[in-house]
Amino acid sequence: MEQKFFREPSTFVGHVELNITNLASSLEFYQEVIGLQILEQSERRAVLTADGKTGLISLVQPEQAAPKQANTTGLYHYAILLPNRVDLAKVIQHFSELNIRIGASDHLVSEALYLNDPDGNGIEIYVDRPSSTWTWKNSEVAMTVDPLDIKDIMGDLGNESWEGLPAGTVIGHIHLHVSELKNTEEFYREGLGFDVVNRFGAQALFISTGGYHHHIGLNTWAGAGAPAPAENSAGLAFFALTLPSEGAREKVIDRLQGLGYDVERDDEVFMTKDPSGNRIKLQV
């Protein structure tokens, strides 16, 4: 993992908060299967960490929590980025021992596994190839969906075994269902300051800062005009964007408000919504 994409001056996804229907069963899954640790816990909320210090994912059980709604905007998947390839080999071995069903893809820029949590929230666990090997043409990066060579990855394992997610783990990106792409692109590009790095026909858009392959994916695969889910349904509560400085956040807020989008402030917490209702926390 190349740290430059997840520190200033880049803007990146620093945290994801999920609504779930049963905190106890979700915690069991996230600890035993995914390998995160509990950083904080209350009756209806828990914060999970890989390094014992930094919260990566929060789980919240709303009052009268409802199952995840199909064909709505919100989470397609969020992606956990591992420091190196041997970490991915350890995860594959661990999933195999637990008999966990997974999807797997080679994206040229990265090697990835896919699975769902107990509520159907999509999770990607991946490792990047060195950025020097990524192919760029006219400011777009080449990405694909090829079969993953699991045998080759497992050749890196040696005698090492899985002991949970390593300390260098971060949220690599988030991929969202949106209702349309025109206003969405304006919001993320002109408002938040992201660059478009890949267009997948008229159905998906990949954006980043600092030359990463993508910090955010946006797609209309839930249907054009898809509605936002109910607030108490399982799925994405919000994701946090980490901005490089207070000044950068002020500029983002000015640009968003200039485009007609609201930014709510509660003490030092700044929240906004994209055109599809996906909630975003603006943090420094």
From TrEMBL:
Keyword field: Metal-binding
Pfam families, per the entry: Glyoxalase
Highest taxon in the source lineage: Bacteria
Residue ranges constituting the VOC domain according to the UniProt record: 12-128, 170-284
InterPro entries the UniProt entry points to: Glyas_Bleomycin-R_OHBP_Dase (IPR029068), Glyas_Fos-R_dOase_dom (IPR004360), Glyoxalase_1_CS (IPR018146), VOC_core (IPR037523)
Gene Ontology molecular function: lactoylglutathione lyase activity; metal ion binding
PANTHER family: CATECHOL-2,3-DIOXYGENASE (PTHR43279:SF1)
Protein name as annotated: Glyoxalase
Organism: Virgibacillus phasianinus
Top-level taxonomy: Bacteria, Bacillati, Bacillota, Bacilli, Bacillales
